TrEMBL record:
Reactions it catalyzes: [protein-PII]-L-tyrosine + UTP = [protein-PII]-uridylyl-L-tyrosine + diphosphate; [protein-PII]-uridylyl-L-tyrosine + H2O = [protein-PII]-L-tyrosine + UMP + H(+)
Region annotated Disordered, chain positions: 1-22, 915-938
Activity control, per UniProt: Uridylyltransferase (UTase) activity is inhibited by glutamine, while glutamine activates uridylyl-removing (UR) activity.
Region (Uridylyltransferase) location: 1-379
UniProt xrefs under Pfam families: ACT_ACR9_3rd, GlnD_UR_UTase, HD, NTP_transf_2
Cofactor: Mg(2+)
Composition-biased stretches (Low complexity): 928-938
Domain comment, as recorded: Has four distinct domains: an N-terminal nucleotidyltransferase (NT) domain responsible for UTase activity, a central HD domain that encodes UR activity, and two C-terminal ACT domains that seem to have a role in glutamine sensing.
Residue ranges annotated for the HD domain, each copy included: 496-618
Family, per entry: Belongs to the GlnD family.
Name assigned to this protein: Bifunctional uridylyltransferase/uridylyl-removing enzyme
Protein purpose: Modifies, by uridylylation and deuridylylation, the PII regulatory proteins (GlnB and homologs), in response to the nitrogen status of the cell that GlnD senses through the glutamine level. Under low glutamine levels, catalyzes the conversion of the PII proteins and UTP to PII-UMP and PPi, while under higher glutamine levels, GlnD hydrolyzes PII-UMP to PII and UMP (deuridylylation). Thus, controls uridylylation state and activity of the PII proteins, and plays an important role in the regulation of nitrogen metabolism.
């Protein structure tokens, strides 16, 4: 058998010249390794130095912006080729034949597979190798393989490897798509080239005989599973750059399909009439693939270098660093990191669109054109549509999306009405002709069709398709500004466009009755609405002005007045949509940031809403908005608060609350509580009824008053200085903690500190001082998962910690510091501290709103600052948006009056701003013990 002189096989000279296709090989390195040859330890030091030089050269050039990610990946792979040739030569020299049988062994070829086989490597990627033999590897070949692998491992490289004969390769490829895919990428490195060439010929023959169908089906199934693992939405705010939807692996899948079907090496080979498949890509699409490939590789390289490991998920802590390294700086009101992430998400969308363009074209070129049926369906024919493979297409040859853009809406509506799929080739045409949607603006038929799709069955599904194809951005230009737009926070899970489509999906779930248990009031109200089209339009436009600076609700309301008439809504509907967009945060902000027991809170909303229909619309829109933020945002406690706001405002609009004055309501509450205590002696009953101030009687129902009465009587009977009771409210997903103790300044703060140490998060609180000088404070808390704090041992510990805190035996600050720190990925999100005073929201209290970074003990520090200023806290409303805490307190001074003196307010502001900085100046490196009630803050 003839062996090429430049590629040593087993038994050949271990000192080959460097091959031309392996830049980075240093002949002197090979000569030094095999001279003697060197002892293994010396060789390892030499190779380690060379490897460091290789990696350093690529990193220095990349970080100096001398080359982007894709050229860097190719250069690193080429330099690694040289290293592998040197290691191969050294392994041969260190493993001489021991006998004649080993001398006569069949040689092997060293082959790169996987990403390395494609000629690209990330800084910390695995190196995938195939040791390829004609027959089973003999004893010497096994020693050489083992020597190479141990050398690579000792160099700190991660290696994926297999030793297979030609027959093994064919059989494994038949059984395992992963192996088949790896072999698609196979690239000869060194060794016996004829062995590789025989494999390549056999593999190409097998590929052609097998056909594309089975491979295509397997890759689609693999892709679906991968997307399910790493996030089926391409617009998650912490995307997986490699495996997520629209990531590098999706681009690689297109490469695999093209190479398997046509044997192409590069995507530009698919451009032009004479290319395989007859021109599957346009020049523009080929450039788009190149841009996406290069951009994602650049992000991946930065991510690896910043993390110092093979990190593929672009988490919050990496996003600002990678964005800055890539040159993204603030522009206008948009941060550099948000600009970077928008570019990433637009690239991801391009990958999705390119997949929809190229994959069906490859399939059809390999498997043949579809059989199109034009007759037999008059309605379809009249609409300009036909069937191909049982799926919808524009009817050829005279009907197409470029000449008749309204077909793009007709095909979506037909697919929905008939519960059919749109043919991949039609989706390809939608993408390529999306720019023609601009011609449909204001066109009556287009408006009718669009509103039908927006308000019809499975609207979210079809809107998502229209968004991914680019139709929505052309039909509604303002929509283009929110595509791929993210907010750099830990609260919102999706980009703005994806969140909006999710909200419409939730609205349809409510209409179908699927959320009757989770959102019963919204589910009941949905059937009573008279403005259904306006509600859907408001859901679509509620965040349309995000990313423009200023109040997105006010800006969005103005934009809605421009968009709504253009898509066919009436003036009345337009006014309703604009009003809903303007006030879409009203109900949630009131529920989570205001004291809904304060009549003024409810009366102010009622005065703003005025209409029961608008109140119903607002409640439903609020539920949709909140549930679309992310899977962990909604819980029973928030549902309860929203229901309370709705029913109280509805009562006012029905004329209920405006009749009884405060004193009358207090008297009624006392009467109801007295009725619950009829079995008590009259003297004890009257004693309890004399304990509460008006605010106490209006804060709870009669049943709760009766429980408090029993608690107080029991405490006084045993002269207990402290009584703690807990009650799990499963329907509300909270645990109620009631504390009865002697009132003193800082009581609330010490209890809050104890709860933080216990790992409980406060979601709401009511603080009452009774006429006997005792405090009756009620806290509603949740666990880390946003559910009721209900583990018996944790409840017992919670009570002990409260007692220790109030007695002074618990060193709160030291214990709070021990509570776990937040994950590193969240520390990059900054939250500027902010304190706002409001003397108009309540007739009787000053309302203080505090914004700051959440952390264990934050509530303890903030309330301690309030108490140190000589103020009394009447109620607290605790909310978090990711790592941002928004806590609202209703306070009075020692005389029971509002705080209106400017000097006093200035002093209070300084104290509270100081309390928002973590002890030791950690700058927000800690997070709350658990997530708390949340709503969309912006």
């Amino acid at each position: 058998m003839t062996k090429p002189a430049s590629f040593p096989a087993l038994g050949n000279s271990p000192r080959p010249p460097a091959p031309a296709d392996a830049p980075g090989v240093i002949p002197d390195l090979i000569a030094e390794l095999v001279a003697g040859p060197l002892r293994r330890e010396q060789a390892l030091d030499l190779l380690r130095t060379h490897l460091g030089r290789i990696q350093g050269r690529v990193q220095d050039a990349f970080e100096a912006h001398e080359l982007d990610g894709l050229p860097a990946a190719r250069w690193l792979a080429a330099l690694t080729d040289g290293l592998m040739l040197a290691i191969h030569a050294y392994a041969l020299a260190m493993s001489p034949a021991r006998n004649a049988a080993e001398e006569a062994e069949a040689p092997f070829a060293l082959v790169a597979t996987g990403g390395y086989g494609r000629g690209v490597l990330a800084p910390y990627s695995d190196i995938d190798l195939l040791f390829l033999t004609d027959q089973q590897a003999g004893p010497r070949a096994q020693r050489v393989v083992e020597f190479i692998l141990y050398l690579l491992w000792d160099l700190g490289l991660k290696v994926g490897h297999a030793t297979r004969s030609l027959r093994d390769c064919m059989e494994e490829a038949e059984r395992d798509t992963t192996v088949l895919t790896a072999l698609v990428d196979a690239r000869f490195l060194v060794g016996e080239r004829p062995v590789y060439e025989r494999f390549s010929a056999a593999f190409d023959k097998s590929r052609r005989e097998r056909g594309l169908a089975a491979f295509l089906a397997a890759k689609r199934q693999e892709r679906a599973g991968r997307h399910a693992r790493y996030g089926d939405s391409p617009f998650l705010v912490e995307p997986h750059v490699k495996e997520g939807r629209g990531g590098l692996r999706d681009l690689q899948t297109l490469y695999w399909l093209a190479r398997y079907a046509f044997g192409t090496q590069r995507m530009p080979e698919l451009v032009g009439e004479n290319s395989p498949g007859g021109g599957l890509l346009t020049e523009h699409e080929a450039r788009a693939i190149r841009r996406a490939w290069n951009f994602l590789w650049t992000v991946r390289f930065h991510l690896h270098y910043v993390a110092g490991r093979a990190e593929e998920r672009l988490t919050f802590d990496f996003q600002p660093v990678v964005g800055a390294r890539m040159g993204y700086t603030p522009r206008g009101r948009q941060d550099g990191v948000e600009r970077f992430m928008k570019h990433l998400f637009l690239t991801v969308r391009d990958v999705l669109r390119l997949t929809r363009v190229l994959e069906p074209a490859i399939e059809r070129a390999a498997l043949g054109p579809p059989a199109i049926r034009r007759q037999g369906d008059a309605a379809l024919a009249e609409a300009g549509l036909a069937l191909a493979d049982g799926k919808l297409v524009a009817a050829p040859p005279n009907r197409d999306f470029s000449r008749e853009p309204v077909l793009m809406l007709r095909i979506v509506k037909a697919a929905r009405d008939r519960k059919m799929e749109i043919h991949p080739l039609a989706i390809r045409a939608l993408i390529r002709n999306a720019h023609h949607a601009a011609a449909l603006r204001g066109q009556p038929e287009a408006n009718t069709l669009f509103l039908d799709i927006l308000t019809g069955r499975d609207a979210a599904l079809w809107l998502r398709l229209m968004n991914e194809t680019g139709f929505l951005s052309r039909y509604i230009p303002d929509w283009a500004r929110i595509v791929g737009l993210m907010q750099f926070d830990t609260y919102h899970v999706f980009t703005v466009d994806e969140h909006t489509i999710e909200a419409i999906g939730v609205l349809q779930q409510i209409e179908r009755g699927e959320l009757a248990e989770i959102a019963p009031v919204a589910s009941e109200l949905i059937g009573q609405l008279q403005s259904r089209r306006a509600l859907y339009a408001a859901a679509m436009l509620h965040d349309i002005a995000k990313g423009r600076g200023g109040d997105h609700s006010e800006l969005g309301a103005r934009i809605a007045t421009e968009i709504c008439p253009k898509i066919g809504l009436t003036p009345e509907e337009t006014e309703t949509v604009s009003w809903l967009v303007l006030h879409h945060l009203l109900v949630s902000q009131t529920a989570f940031k205001r004291d809904i027991e304060d009549p003024k809170t409810i009366l102010d909303i009622a005065d703003l809403v005025q209409s029961p229909e608008r109140l119903r619309l607002l409640l439903v829109l609020t539920v949709c908005d909140m549930r679309a933020v992310g899977p962990k945002v909604w819980n029973g406690w928030k549902a309860t608060l929203l229901r309370e706001v709705y029913w109280r405002v509805a009562e006012v609009l029905a004329g209920g609350l405006s009749v009884p004055e405060r004193d009358v309501r207090v008297a009624r509450a006392r009467e109801a509580a007295g009725a619950m205590l009829q079995a008590w002696p009259a003297a004890e009953r009257e004693k309890f009824l004399a304990l509460g101030y008006p605010g106490y009687w209006l804060s709870f129902d009669a049943e709760t008053h009766a429980r408090h009465a029993a608690l107080i009587r029991e405490a006084e009977s045993v002269q207990a200085p402290l009584t703690v009771r807990t009650r799990v409210l499963e329907a509300r997903a909270v645990t109620e903690v009631t504390v009865y103790a002697a009132d003193h300044p800082g009581l609330f703060s010490r209890i809050a500190g104890a709860l933080a140490v216990a790992g409980a998060s406060i979601v709401d609180a009511r603080i009452h001082t009774l006429t006997n000088g005792m405090a009756l404070d009620t806290f509603w808390v949740q666990d880390a998962a946003g559910g009721a704090f209900d583990a018996p041992h944790r409840l017992a510990r919670l009570s002990v910690l409260i007692e220790q805190s109030l007695s002074g035996r618990l060193r709160l600050r030291d214990e709070i510091r021990k509570v776990r720190r937040e994950p590193a990925r969240l520390r990059a999100v900054t939250v500027p501290p902010r304190v706002v005073f409001d003397n108009h929201a309540s007739n009787t209290h000053t309302v203080i709103e505090v914004n700051g970074r959440d952390r264990p003990g934050l509530l303890h520090d903030v309330t301690a600052a309030i108490s140190d200023q000589g103020l009394q806290i009447a109620s607290a409303h605790i909310t978090t948006y990711g790592v941002r805490a928004v806590d609202v307190f209703y306070v009075k001074d020692v005389f029971g009056l509002k705080v209106e003196n400017e000097r006093k307010l200035a002093s209070l502001r300084r104290a509270m701003e100081a309390s928002l900085t973590p002890p030791g100046g950690e700058g927000g490196g800690m997070v709350a013990a658990a997530p708390r009630a949340a709503a969309d803050p912006a």
